[in-house]
Amino acid sequence: MATPLSADAFLAALRAEGVTVVEVGDWRNHNRNHVGAWGPVHGVMIHHTVTSGSAATVELCRVGHADLPGPLCHGVITKDGRVHLVGYGRANHAGGGDPDVLDAVIAETALPADNESTTDGNTHFYGFECENLGDGEDPWPAEQLEAIERAAAAVCRAHGWGAGSVIGHLEWQPGKVDPRGFTMNDMRGRIADRLAGNTEDDMALSEEDLDRIAYKVWSYHNGSYPTDIHNAVVQTYWAVGEKRDSRVPREDGGDPVAYYTGDHVAATNGVVYGLRDQIEELRTQLATLSEQVNALSARPTADTADAATEPA
């Protein structure tokens, strides 16, 4: 028997697994706990929504509808790979299912065929709804499948479960088909690999790491740091100044004139124009780096049609 994670622990587990999380409203306190138990929890259930459009899908899973009030899951996994947290606690997603399947999930053994709907799954399962029409033709983007893998693995890791604790709705309740478009056996294999450390994630970088990298790139260009460039300009300026202070007498006895002023001003202009070209090149490199850093920072946060038949 497992006590449900606290909302904060749930969020932390997702982020630690590299999930891009979006917190929607007061998700921590949005639940159906007043109509039934939440826990003990034994597994994670995956659904498809039979909807399209991320914003509308998230909102529907959050509020539900007249026949089935929300939340309709804990997290909505949209096609862009983000996980939108819409509720926490008891949620209307699993409905009634087969007690033999629940026993197999607890034991993490092979799942039997589901032929009963007598056990309340909303008590025992975390639920993730995944944006998809569920027609077998709507594609599953790679980033969405990866988010499903990461989200399920996050919960399993937090509880000390294996991939056998993750099931699809179609494996729980007779007549259900979701998720359609990939197999749960394949997904469990991916989750098992992740839990075993057999995935090749990008190295996680902290904000401090990213700042340090950005500064190093900004501050170094073709072997010169900004201080070096600044010093070169200053030295050139003073060199010109010294020449300007060198005076030659005029034949008519007037005030002495500056020595080669025009030549040295031209030399200074040449240095400045050269620096301008270097700065433009550096600006281009920084723009490229900014895109790469932003990409790193963004990584490593309702089966509505079917759910309409589920009890609250």
UniProtKB/TrEMBL annotation:
Domain N-acetylmuramoyl-L-alanine amidase: 27-180
Listed InterPro entries: Amidase/PGRP_sf, Amidase_domain
A molecular-function term among this protein's GO annotations: N-acetylmuramoyl-L-alanine amidase activity
Residue stretches in coiled coil: 272-299
DNA repair recorded as keyword: no
Entry annotated with the keyword Coiled coil: yes
Keywords on record: Coiled coil
Superkingdom of this protein's organism: Bacteria
GO BP terms: peptidoglycan catabolic process
Pfam families: Amidase_2
Protein name per its UniProtKB record: N-acetylmuramoyl-L-alanine amidase domain-containing protein
